[in-house]
Each structure stands twice: as C-alpha cells, then as structure tokens.
C-alpha cells in the first residue's frame, strides 16, 4: 500500500463522527493490506511507531517540526510559524505549505518505507542527532502530497484526531477477518495478555485464530491491569463477597515490574515504559529472587525526614525526564507489591490470589524498597470497617477488598476486587475520573482564561465512546484555568469527535485526552446528559462537581470511570436514600 492511499483512508476516518463508520472504514483498510503491512499500519493509525510500552520516540518537538515543514516545502520558517499560530494544527499547517509548494511530483512511497524511515529518525541519537533527524524527516516529508503531509506530521506529533480507541481497532480486525465482531473476545483476551495491537493484527493475518490464542504472557510486555469495582460500605462488601482479603489502598500510581535476567523494566497502568524515571525501583527489581518475573504494585513517594508517605501530586512529580537522581534522593519511591503474574517461565495468573501473594512475599523478602502489601482476612463488616478507618487515619485512600480464591483477570473490572475510599462531604462517597470532551469560553473574568467551563464525560466500554455527564466550572485557581486552556488547545477539533456522545454542544470540542479526578455531591438523573441514557430514560449527571486533580499522566481516557460504574454508584446512592432529580 502506498502512503497516499493510506492517507486517504485516514482522511475518511477523520471525517466521520460515527463509531460504526470508524469500524467499517478501518476494517476495509485492513482488508486491503498484507500481513507485513498490518502491524505497522495499526501502530501508525494510533500515532505510534511501535506498541505503547516500547519507548520509541521520534524526538522532534514542535519547533523542529515547523523547521522541517519549512525545509521540505521551501517556505520561510517564520511564515510557517505564523501560519501554525493561526491554524493551531501542525498537520493542517503542513498540508497548507505542501499545497503552496505545488504538491509532490515523485511517486508516493510505500507505507512500510515510511514506517521504516520514521524508525530511522527515532533511532538517531548522540552528537548531531537533531540535525540528522531534521534531514531525514524533512526529506521524507518533501516526497508527500498535501493530504499525506497532513497525516504524516500528525503521526509524528502523536495527535491523530481520529477518535480510534483500542476497542475500535479490535472490532475492525474482527470485522475484516470474520465479517462481524465475533472474534472480539479472542482478540481482547490476547490484548489483555500482550498489550500489543500490532502484534495481534500481524498474528491474526499470518497465523489465524490459533496463532492469536497462542499469544501468552511474556516478560517485557505489560499485562493490562486488573481493576477494582466499587461498593458503598463495608456491609455491602461482606454481603456480596463473603470472606475477603483486605489491603491498604495507597494514593500513588500503579506500576508493573518486569525482570528478565539482569534487565528490569517498569510500566505504568496506561502501558507507558517508565524504566528511566525510577532508578530505585529498577535497582530493587534487580534484587528480586527470581530469574524472570512480573510484579504488580502501587508506587508512592516517601519522605525520609518525616517518615511519611507524600500526597499523590508529589508522587506524580517523580514522573520526569530531567533531574531524576536529585528527586529520587528527596522523595524516594516505595512500591507496595500486591500481585505476581509470572515467574521463571510460568504464567501464574490462574493461581488463587492468596497463593500469588505468598509468592510475592517469597521473592521480595528483605527489600526496603519493594514491600509486600499487608493482607487481613475477614468476613466481618466490623473488622473491614476498622481496617478502612485505620488506613484513612494514616493518610491513605482507603482499602481494597479481594476475593482470595480468584485468578488474576487481566484487563477486567469486576467484584473480585472492590475498593472502599474515604467519604466526601456530600452524598457521593467516591471520586470519579472524567474525560474532558469540550469547553465553553465563558463570560466576564473567565474570558481571559480561554476556557470558562468544561464539558466532561465518562467512558462507555460497551460502545467505546465517551458519554457526557457534567459541566465543570469550579475546583481550579485562575492560574490553573490558564494552564489547562493551554493543555487542551492541542486537542481542539472542529466537529464532535466520533467517540463522543453528547446532547450538549460546547463552544469547542476536544478530542478525549485529559483525565480529571472530580468530587461531586451526588449523581442525579438528567435529560441533558447521555451517560447511562436509555430509551425513554434520562442520563446521569454529577451535581456540584469540582476538580481534585488531573490523572492523565497515569491514566488513558479509556481508564476513566465507566458508565457502568456510574450506574452502579447511582443505584448504591439510591439504596442509601440519597437519590435526587434535576
């Protein structure tokens, strides 16, 4: 497939606001490619060169991309910069300059050639690497027609604006191969084990369904994490789960530790490779008593001076590319390991949780950095309540209750694990992670901030879309509003994104990308919002929401609170006599 043919399909994907159309167009694209092409094309559609967990970065910042556009099309650099400020989209800026230059005259390169040459750009390191990257990139850009140039630059900047999530890719692969979505469970199971859509696509095309089924848990590929459901109080937990193991819920970030011989890698909840950021965790992982292993835990910053664990925002301050050693000394991390999924060639995910935790204690024993998360077994609501209160008094978020006889279910969110957190001042007893899908420009003082109020949604995992649930106008300082506006500008689109379901129309739509943790007084029925909306039934909304923090550093939009979770929280609220209407 030539890159200009691929770009035309990307244009079709960009133009639609229907998820069904996204699946159809992407499946047609897949039907037209070879087994060698389907893996790279899957990565390119996501704005990547490799799976999310591989730290392959092209390494061209905004200013260098503008320089490359000017070089490729013989334009004045300052003029290109002014055009970008006016347009606000690097891809559209490249398309404009390509048109002004009269387009290309040479034959379009194949997609595989473009992918290979971009990998060469990413691989350039050391002295003079920026100049080499610029030469390679601008030379390739000069060979492309205007539409191809637009999408090529967007791929490079990681801002595709296509609205394609992982479930959409899985549905498209199934549709292309089987004519319907019947292969989705098989493909999703493989994705939960490998976190690599390109690998799955290539395997399906080359080796069929048996090949996909044979893809196993492997050190070096993060497993999609198991997640916890919510229940309102200890009594509800014991009624539903019976005997549970209770562990503290730490206010840090999820981390997977992979060890293979002398090599240790760290991965975040959203599959990012974090190995270079946390040298103390890498060193501790190297001392684990196993030749190869995959551990799951929660990392939290610790103050040696006060002997206390630090708040979430200070923990997240450790996620950085510069000043790593200094910050490691000031606020070292400790990881509370609560699971093991693989050891010395054996997949452990099928073992009961209690057996897996015993293995954790064996392999990390004696470490000051990797600590086994303590476990209290009980079938008493009163004991669970005391555990919850004790952990809250220590400044932790609460507890997680786990069925001790269940396997590790990668990518699942169910009632094998349930979290209990500190209550808020209102009726809603937990925070909700929402995704920003638009903003209103505001009036009065808010006009100078750029954004006056935010439209936010939650994730509908059944439909792979973001359904609106609230407008947010509080919870940020003036400076934070200005900073947020600068962040969301890069996500602005001129039409409702295909994966956004909203009755309300904001002044500006946003491609889902920013995850915010919010508190609210309660969940209420609302005909204006689409979260949980069914035929002849209103949707659900958050009453008096306020932003607590931003979580997109460790959560992708698809990791936000789901519609199903909100519906369950609403039912729990009603059961406590706290329901209301708007």
General description of the model:
The chain is of the alpha+beta class. Helices cover 39% and strands 21% of the residues. The chain is built from 20 helices and 22 strands. Strands 13, 14, 15, 16, 17, 18, 19 and 22 form an 8-stranded mixed sheet that branches. Strands 3, 4, 5, 6, 7, 8 and 9 form a 7-stranded mixed sheet that branches. A hairpin with a 2-residue loop joins strand 3 and strand 4. Helix 6 packs antiparallel against helix 9. The radius of gyration is 24 Å and the shape is globular. The N and C termini lie far apart (53 Å).
Short summary:
With 582 residues, this protein is of the alpha+beta class.
The total of beta strands comes to: 22
Number of helices: 20
Name the structural class. Answer: alpha+beta
The major pleated sheet works out as:
8 strands, mixed
Helix content: 25-40%
- Tell me what portion of residues adopts beta-strand conformation: 15-25%
Low-confidence stretches: 578-582
Shape: globular
Give average pLDDT, whole number: 88
Ends distance: 53 Å
Radius of gyration: 24 Å
Characteristics:
single chain, 582 residues, alpha+beta, 7-stranded mixed beta sheet, disordered C terminus
Show the helix and strand layout:
Layout: H1 3-15, H2 19-31, H3 35-45, H4 62-72, H5 77-87, H6 90-100, H7 111-123, H8 129-141, H9 146-157, H10 166-178, H11 184-194, H12 197-213, E1 227-230, H13 234-241, E2 244-249, E3 253-260, E4 263-268, H14 279-286, E5 292-303, E6 308-309, H15 312-316, H16 324-330, E7 333-343, E8 346-347, H17 353-364, E9 370-372, E10 376-378, H18 381-393, E11 398-402, E12 413-421, E13 432-440, E14 453-460, E15 465-472, H19 478-489, E16 492-493, E17 500-501, E18 508-510, E19 515-519, E20 522-526, E21 539-543, E22 546-550, H20 563-575
Parallel strand pairs: 1-12, 7-9, 15-17
Antiparallel strand pairs: 2-10, 2-11, 3-4, 3-5, 5-6, 5-7, 7-8, 11-12, 13-14, 13-18, 13-19, 14-15, 16-18, 19-22, 20-21
């Amino acid at each position: 497939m030539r890159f200009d043919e691929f770009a035309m399909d990307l244009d079709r994907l960009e133009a639609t606001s229907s998820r069904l159309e996204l699946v159809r167009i992407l499946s047609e694209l897949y039907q037209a490619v070879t087994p060698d092409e389907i893996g790279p094309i899957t990565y390119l559609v996501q704005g990547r060169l490799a799976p999310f967990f591989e730290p392959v970065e092209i390494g061209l910042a905004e200013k260098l991309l503008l320089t490359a556009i000017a070089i490729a099309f013989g334009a004045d650099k300052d003029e290109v910069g002014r055009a970008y400020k006016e347009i606000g989209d690097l891809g559209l800026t490249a398309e404009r300059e390509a048109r002004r230059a009269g387009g290309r005259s040479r034959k379009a390169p194949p997609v595989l050639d473009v992918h290979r040459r971009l990998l060469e750009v990413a691989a350039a390191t050391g002295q003079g690497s920026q100049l080499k990257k610029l030469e390679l990139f601008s030379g390739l850009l000069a060979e492309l027609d205007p539409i191809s140039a637009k999408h090529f630059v967007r791929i490079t900047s990681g801002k595709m604006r296509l609205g394609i999530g992982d479930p959409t890719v899985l549905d498209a692969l199934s549709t292309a191969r089987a004519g319907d979505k019947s292969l989705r469970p098989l493909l999703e199971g493989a994705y939960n084990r490998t976190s690599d859509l390109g690998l799955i696509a290539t395997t399906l095309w080359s080796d069929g369904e048996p090949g996909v089924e044979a893809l196993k848990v492997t050190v070096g590929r993060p497993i999609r994490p198991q997640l916890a459901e919510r229940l309102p109080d200890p009594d509800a937990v014991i009624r539903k789960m019976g005997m549970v193991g209770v562990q503290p819920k730490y206010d840090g970030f999820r981390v997977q530790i992979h060890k293979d011989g002398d090599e240790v890698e760290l991965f975040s909840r959203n599959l990012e490779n974090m190995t270079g950021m946390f040298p103390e965790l890498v060193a501790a992982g190297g001392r684990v008593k196993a030749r190869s292993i995959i551990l799951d835990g929660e990392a939290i910053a610790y103050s040696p001076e006060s002997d206390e664990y630090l708040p979430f925002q200070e923990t997240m301050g450790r996620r950085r590319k510069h000043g790593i050693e200094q910050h490691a000394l000031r606020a070292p991390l400790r990881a509370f390991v609560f699971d093991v999924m693989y050891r010395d060639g054996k997949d452990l995910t099928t073992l009961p949780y209690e057996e897996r935790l015993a293995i954790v204690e064996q392999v990390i024993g004696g470490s000051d950095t990797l600590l086994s998360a303590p476990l209290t077994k009980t079938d008493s609501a009163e004991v669970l309540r005391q555990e919850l209160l004790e952990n809250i008094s220590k400044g932790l978020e609460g507890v997680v209750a786990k069925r001790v006889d269940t396997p590790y279910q990668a990518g699942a969110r169910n009632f094998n694990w349930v979290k209990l957190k500190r209550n808020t001042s209102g009726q809603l007893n937990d925070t909700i992670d929402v995704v920003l899908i638009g903003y209103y420009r505001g009036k009065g003082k808010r006009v100078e901030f750029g954004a006056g109020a935010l439209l936010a949604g939650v994730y509908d995992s059944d439909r792979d879309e973001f359904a609106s649930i609230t407008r947010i106008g509080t919870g940020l300082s003036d400076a934070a509003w200005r900073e947020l506006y600068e962040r969301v500008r890069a996500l602005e689109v001129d039409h409702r994104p295909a994966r956004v379901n909203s009755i309300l129309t904001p002044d500006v739509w946003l491609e889902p990308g920013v995850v915010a943790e919010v508190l609210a007084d309660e969940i209420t029925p609302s005909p204006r919002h689409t979260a949980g909306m069914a035929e002849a039934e209103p949707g659900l909304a958050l009453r008096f929401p306020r932003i607590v923090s931003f979580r997109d550093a460790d959560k992708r939009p698809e990791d936000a609170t789901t519609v199903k979770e909100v519906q369950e929280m609403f039912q729990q609220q009603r059961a406590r006599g706290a329901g209301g209407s708007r």
